[in-house]
Amino acid sequence: MVAAEARRRPEIDQPSLIPHIAEAKSQKYSYEVLFRSLQKLLIDTATSEIIHQHQDMIAFSCCVYDGGDEEKEMDAAREIGWRGKFTKRGCVIRPGIIRMNGKCPLTPLEVGLMLHGMGFSNKTAIFLASGKIYKAEKNMTSLLEMFPLLQTKETLASEEELAPFKNFSSRMAHVDYSICAQSEVFVTTQGGNFPHFLMGHRRYLYGGHSKTIKPDKRRLVVLFNNPRIGCAPMDQFYLLCFDHLSSLADNIPDLPCPPYHIVTKPGQLPVEFLEPSAAQKLVIGFDCEGVDLCRNGALCIMQLAFPDAVYLVDAIEGGKELIQACKPALESDHITKVIHDCKRDSEALYFQFGIKLHNVMDTQIAYSLIQEQEQEGKKKTSDDYNYISFVSLLADKRYCGIPYPEKEEVRILLRQDPNFWTIRPLSDMMVRAATDDVRFLLNIYEKMMEKLNKVSLWRLAVRSELYCRCFCLNDNQFADWSPLPPVPDGIEADVYVPEVDILSVLDVPHGKMGRVIGRKGSTIMVVKESCNVEIHIGGAKGPPDRVFIIGSVNEVRKAEAIFRGRMLEF
């Protein structure tokens, strides 16, 4: 089942298509001429939602909604379309399990309940994009009760206008596809190529702002597990949902998107950034984007978030000279760089530009230290040893409470084209993604600083420095890096001050990394839990054959012993 809200268009006088069809036949116009005419008629007439549910789709999915005679009818339909596919020896169809796994298309009733719950009123016009509907008289009744303004191709166009398309399933599907593609909202509730192609196509329409909704059927089926559920019993549930969402919205900060500037020359950056001084201390959000960003992966964009604007430093257009102009600021004690997980960014800056990133406040480390403060004296669980992602941090209502689905869109594009960040000029989506990665950081910084005590602030400074140099190992063993921050003055004598954190690097014999760290990193997890340390490996980006351990001296030594013991086993 597919639903979409068609774009509203001004009403125009639409002449009958019959003369055009006759003319097309006489002059041997292509099918495309007829299609464009019918498409315009349907889009101009249909005004809101689109749904479809094919009988063969339900048959192929092996989903049975009512059991009994309907199940036998579905068996017959499967044999017509896929003779022998579902009757092979050993083939067992379990519709209940298939449905609970989210593999069944939603029924018209369930789609209606979902749209109703999302706030679509009964004045919303529905366009039914479908072939033969499975038990239309029975299944469409509940949907019609909720959305009486239901339309189909047959009700919007005359038989004469549909005649060139009627007996060609691919042509009819083409009409449905084109209307769905141009809709304001597209909702897919089934699998298959049709919705997947549409979702991909719509990413490039309307400046990347086409609304597409893909329901989680595995979770929805739990709500819709009553086959006789109706609209009335769900109203109270929806009211509770809206009340809950409203309470969450009250905690979401009002953070308007600041203006952005694409920087290709040093002179386009603020003077206080280019010339840091003790008289004017700055706090900025910071991040980097590139092609497999690491010591060898090219740095393409460096984002700098100031309170009043975001600067996108274009390393491709500006070249090495532009990045070198930023070196004093990135190495300065007077500018605090707020970043989430700085290891790869620091590695790229160090090996590609000779910049030693300094005075960093890493929000990933800060989050972990706040968790330790809040759980002091409690036993740690396995989740406490995991590092929070930036998306999860933004979703935490204590700091932002903002969803960030665009991040996953960028990840998909990066998988399709690893050189995504090298494309020039920067597209609207690239600018938006780069800006969103830094514009919330200053707000998060302020809230985290309020929660961190003096000891945690010192540990944050030390560990952030260790993160910066973690993957920057060379022959001089970090000798050219600044000393780690000492224990600050003002910490009372009766306050327990933990041992200073250190970074240890273990060389692993070539080809033995997989055995040393264990299956799916099982040894790493054991070491984390028993030694209270952080463990990082270079992975595919490198550096290869090395394990990096961060923690207090005694805990690091214990972790080293465990790993060396694993090396001796092989």
Oligomeric state, counting identical vs distinct chains: single chain
Task: Report low-confidence residues grouped into runs of 5 or more.
Answer: 5-31, 55-62
**Number of helices in the DSSP assignment:** 27
Class of secondary structure makeup? alpha/beta
Strand order of the largest sheet: 7-10-9-8-11-12
The average pLDDT is 77
Largest sheet features = 6 strands, mixed
Domain 3'-5' exonuclease: 260-453
GO molecular function: 3'-5' exonuclease activity; glycosyltransferase activity; RNA binding
Keywords: Carbohydrate metabolism, Fucose metabolism, Glycosyltransferase, RNA-binding, Transferase
Domain K Homology: 500-568
Short description:
Keywords: Carbohydrate metabolism, Fucose metabolism, Glycosyltransferase, RNA-binding, Transferase. The chain has 570 residues and is an alpha/beta fold. 46% of the residues lie in helices and 13% in strands.
Structure, explained:
By secondary structure, this protein is an alpha/beta fold. It folds into three domains: 192 residues, 3-Layer(aba) Sandwich (Rossmann fold); 225 residues, Nucleotidyltransferase, domain 5 (2-Layer Sandwich); 72 residues, K Homology domain, type 1 (Ribosomal Protein S8, Chain: A, domain 1, 2-Layer Sandwich). The protein is built from 27 helices and 15 strands. The strands form four sheets. A six-stranded mixed beta sheet has the order 7-10-9-8-11-12. The protein has a three-stranded mixed beta sheet with strand order 1-5-6. Helix 2 packs across helix 11 and helix 6 packs parallel to helix 14. It starts with a strand and ends with a helix. One of its GO terms (molecular function) is 3'-5' exonuclease activity. This is O-fucosyltransferase family protein. InterPro entries: 3'-5'_exonuclease_dom, GDP-Fuc_O-FucTrfase, KH_dom, KH_dom_type_1, KH_dom_type_1_sf, RNaseH-like_sf, RNaseH_sf, Vps52_C. It comes from Zea mays (Maize).
